């Protein structure tokens, strides 16, 4: 029990996927392991899949309904020590923009651009596209711009921003960690990629 608590506190934590917003990378019911070793500002990279708390109330009320009674208390105790996956009050998205990046939708090819470079995003849900909402923001210091891989079914930075890049971006201190692998169900077990080649040509800001 103590070892499990230490692992959850300092190293890794399980989370479950409740929605379709990251399909096909992640599907409802997937269990992922989140590394807490790399959530720092210097460690995050474009393309990382991250879990963060619902700091801005992005989740609908129904999605955050808490379990009650003895069963709810038992589940919460298991979550506390890392023996039961969390997920009800957290979100999981892909980092598209780092602090200082200018992120836009879209260029003439319908691509998201970061610092003027169009992204070829192989992880996007097939046929879903990425131009559901047009925007142009510069990501503030200490924050990241996140989007779901299933762009047509993801309530992400695009839909919570006020045009300044502030309300839609995620504070880095709200990030729990980086999702590194799907561990359940067995037939979906895989390491998660940040598709670094997608962002190779993006200049630093």
UniProtKB/TrEMBL annotation:
<feature type="active site">
    <location>
        <position position="21"/>
    </location>
</feature>
<feature type="domain" description="Peptidase S26">
    <location>
        <begin position="2"/>
        <end position="184"/>
    </location>
</feature>
<protein>
    <recommendedName>
        <fullName>Signal peptidase I</fullName>
        <ecNumber>3.4.21.89</ecNumber>
    </recommendedName>
</protein>
<feature type="compositionally biased region" description="Basic and acidic residues">
    <location>
        <begin position="150"/>
        <end position="163"/>
    </location>
</feature>
<keyword id="KW-0378">Hydrolase</keyword>
<dbReference type="GO" id="GO:0005886">
    <property type="term" value="C:plasma membrane"/>
</dbReference>
<comment type="similarity">
    <text>Belongs to the peptidase S26 family.</text>
</comment>
<keyword id="KW-0645">Protease</keyword>
<dbReference type="InterPro" id="IPR036286">
    <property type="entry name" value="LexA/Signal_pep-like_sf"/>
</dbReference>
<dbReference type="Pfam" id="PF10502">
    <property type="entry name" value="Peptidase_S26"/>
</dbReference>
<dbReference type="GO" id="GO:0004252">
    <property type="term" value="F:serine-type endopeptidase activity"/>
</dbReference>
<dbReference type="InterPro" id="IPR019758">
    <property type="entry name" value="Pept_S26A_signal_pept_1_CS"/>
</dbReference>
<feature type="active site">
    <location>
        <position position="93"/>
    </location>
</feature>
<feature type="region of interest" description="Disordered">
    <location>
        <begin position="150"/>
        <end position="171"/>
    </location>
</feature>
<dbReference type="InterPro" id="IPR019533">
    <property type="entry name" value="Peptidase_S26"/>
</dbReference>
<dbReference type="GO" id="GO:0009003">
    <property type="term" value="F:signal peptidase activity"/>
</dbReference>
<dbReference type="GO" id="GO:0006465">
    <property type="term" value="P:signal peptide processing"/>
</dbReference>
<dbReference type="InterPro" id="IPR000223">
    <property type="entry name" value="Pept_S26A_signal_pept_1"/>
</dbReference>
